[in-house]
Amino acid sequence: xxxxxxSGTRALLVQVDFGQGGIEERLSEVSLLAESAxxxxxxxxxxxxxxxxxxxYVGKGKAEEIGLVAKMNEADIVIFNHDITAAQxxxxxxxxxxxxxxxxxxxxxxxxxxxKSHEGKLQVELAQLxxxxxxxxxxWTHLERQKGGIGLRGPGEKQLETDRRLLGERxxxxxxxxxxxxxxxxxxxxxxxxxxVLSVSLVGYTNAGKSTxxxxxxxxxxxxxxxxxxxxxTTSRRLYLGEAGNIVLSDTVGFIRDLPHSLVAAFHAxxxxxxxxxxxxxxxxxxSEDREGQIAAVxxxxxxxxxxxxxxxxxxxxxxxTLASPEVQQDACGKITRVLLSARTGEGLELLRQVLTxxxxxxxxxxxxxxxxxxxx
Length: 377
Ligand SMILES: Nc1nc2c(ncn2[C@@H]2O[C@H](COP(=O)(O)OP(=O)(O)OP(=O)(O)O)[C@@H](O)[C@H]2O)c(=O)[nH]1
Ligand SMILES: [Mg+2]
Fold this sequence. Notes:
By secondary structure, this protein is α/β, with parallel strands linked by helices. The chain has helices spanning 23-36, 60-72, 86-96, 103-114, 118-147, 155-194, 210-218, 261-266, 268-275, 291-304, 319-322, 349-372; strands spanning 9-17, 39-48, 77-80, 99-101, 199-204, 235-240, 246-251, 279-285, 312-317, 327-330, 336-340. It is 49% helix and 18% strand.
């Protein structure tokens, strides 16, 4: 449904500074997003504003500059690293004479490229249709207001109604199928819970190194790459920890700042699985300039999916790039807060294994104590 930038698509990036800071990091992130979608970045236009312009998002002069740079660099698309309204998109496309894509559409696009499992594909399609349906409605009201409905009645209106109805039917079908898969999944999860195995989820910003760490710990061949959203489907593996026995470790989809809401909604089953863990290992790219911003973005998605209060230990990954030493850090009460390691070189991996072993042993002891204590009735 959404047009996908074909590989080799020449993209011009637009980043507007509203005084929120971290512009360099935002620019390098959107470049990586564009490349992850298969595009080649041919230029960047930056601007500065107090607030978005209602009609064109950017001002008139800036729009002209974007048009010029796009033409000069033979750009096929202009990517705004912002969410723009359907009306702004239409106005811009007309003005720039070039296809315009916003940040949400770009992220949805990458998810569409990456989805492998049946469930993942259904979730992405649902998110795309929901993104589209808000645009149909918004586009409609916008035109209605402008032209008092004239020119929108008759066959055109019928077409829009039909599109909306078909869209609604497809959305309902997808939701039903996903609900069925979710029921099956919760049966599997209950079976796992009955075995009283500690379940640990790797969560974190996209590209932090979750899959690399997952592979290093479990020797599984999960796909790890220098791309955003390399992982979409949750993979779980048993991890043997000697005296503590087995735990279940899950590799999950990465988070990003301003994750499109339709995606969070469509992926809520996958995300809920994250929320069902006993412990979260929050993997952080400690070498990123935007480290603190990424940690905050991940914690806010965790809150959104009801996982904000789960026990969490941060794993500061990529210490080979920061030259820090492997280390376990604790707070004033002795609670473990951080493990510094490198999933790539393996430095500090043993420390993390030991931390997990201790948590698993505590979990076992707590379960044993609970089963020994008399039933409440
Ligand atoms: N220097 C360095 N690079 C690392 C380390 N761990 C992972 N990487 C690199 O970081 C990039 C992302 O790694 P992934 O494991 O795919 O990251 P992820 O968190 O699973 O990413 P998504 O699945 O896209 O959310 C890859 O290029 C890895 O090689 C590390 O310890 N040091
Ligand atoms: Mg991954």
